[in-house]
Amino acid sequence: MIDYLLKYPDKLLKAxxxxxxxxxxxxxxxxxxxxxxxxxxxxxxxxxxxxxNIFAMVYSIPSLALFAILVPLTGLGKVTAIIxxxxxxxxxxxxxxxxxxxxxDAAIIEAATGMGMNKSQILFQxxxxxxxxxxxxxxxxxxxxxxxxxxIAASIxxxxxxxxxxxxxxxxxxxxxxxxxxxxxxLAIVVNGILNVIEKKFDII
Amino acid sequence: MSIAIEFKNVYKQFKGSxxxxxxxxxxxxxHGEFITILGSSGxxxxxxxxxxxxxxxxxxxxxxxxxxxISNTDPVEFRRKIGYVIQQVGxxxxxxxxxxxxxVPKILKWPKEKIEARVDELLNxxxxxxxxxxxxxxxxxxxxxxxxVGLARALAVNPDVMLLDExxxxxxxxxxxxxxxxxxxxxxxxxxxxxxVTHDINEAFKLGSRVLIMDKGKIQQFDTPKNIAKNPANxxxxxxxxxxxxxxxxxxx
Lengths: 205, 253
Fold this sequence. Notes:
The complex is a heterodimer of chains A (205) and B (253).
Chain A: H1 2-7, H2 9-43, H3 45-60, H4 63-74, H5 78-102, H6 106-114, H7 119-130, H8 132-152, H9 161-171, H10 174-201
Helix pairs in contact in A: 2-3, 2-5, 2-8, 2-9, 3-5, 4-5, 5-8, 6-7, 8-10, 9-10
Chain B: E1 3-12, E2 22-30, E3 34-38, H1 45-52, E4 60-65, E5 68-69, H2 75-79, E6 82-86, H3 97-101, H4 103-107, H5 112-125, H6 130-133, H7 143-154, E7 161-165, H8 173-190, E8 193-198, H9 201-207, E9 210-215, E10 218-223, H10 225-230, H11 235-243, H12 248-251
Parallel strand pairs in B: 3-8, 3-9, 6-7, 7-8
Antiparallel strand pairs in B: 1-2, 1-4, 4-5, 9-10
Helix pairs in contact in B: 5-7
């Protein structure tokens, strides 16, 4: 195993960096899109229900099937992988945030409305600051699940740690399989730990 | 004296309900009166109150606020002219006490120093030491202290009309009496119009310069505590007074 690392360090590093790249791009797009959709959902009950239902449906499709469906449309490679990962994340992110927004104490909203705050003041000054916890919980979950599902993206030539795993499986190369497992699991565990620490630090309310 | 609030044949019926929560109510409230609205739960008293700051709109009839039909106002801006206190207080948990009290002044873009001075003034008014409470968060206060802050927040821009929806309903008896006395003091010093919803006959007769008794969406009697005690208008009012016999001290005041 160590032999493999010494022989092909650049191969492993390339897969690892490629994986992180997919994860980061996915997260940036996911969070921006989710923020926009959350604001839309906060202003319209119909939109909020529709979004949750649509993304719940998408989320229930197995990742391999979703990759396969999109390949004829967007081709093999990173772009398709990122689209699928972003779609999955929308459910995780929106669900947490919208649930949080809907569960803000009704008395707080009544007081805010009664004293003359308008809809956007209530959203940005009252509701959103009160749901930082569920928002962060959603982001946390999205990060970890993206790291995991991104390994499957190797099946459509998107690269990343999954490519090491797939190669290993195809050629029955134990070293490759072990390195692939170690890297993907290790990355998920380490990132999860870092996020736990951050969450504890920001635990104000 | 000017008329602060006038209801003209106001009806309000909620969707899916067979009867009107507020059923053909007409009334006039002079500016500077302390009106208590008394009735059991479901009698329409809270609905009546919430129609004044347009949390509900009547589906028939009209309401005038200092001679202006409120249906012509922008509800959000209109509400800033009215103080509003609710039983659950509804303080914003992520803001300090000063932040809570300064909410409406901040929306109205008061200068910072003016808001700070007003916060101190209001905290003193409701009996909380500013230096001790300003920077605390609502969760660090007792229920009674929280409602004092709720009151201060409602008074922030010195509104002409205060609406109070069972504000002391969840507060223990001793604190409640204190708060009632302090509220009366604040009212007497302000000469503003107060509307106070309660189901406690004691509280209604103690605080109100006039008491509005409601049942099933209709006004049963609207008079001074003395006159109501002397001449109950109907059986409902009679039974209400009988039920509160132990508290005659206030009725004979």
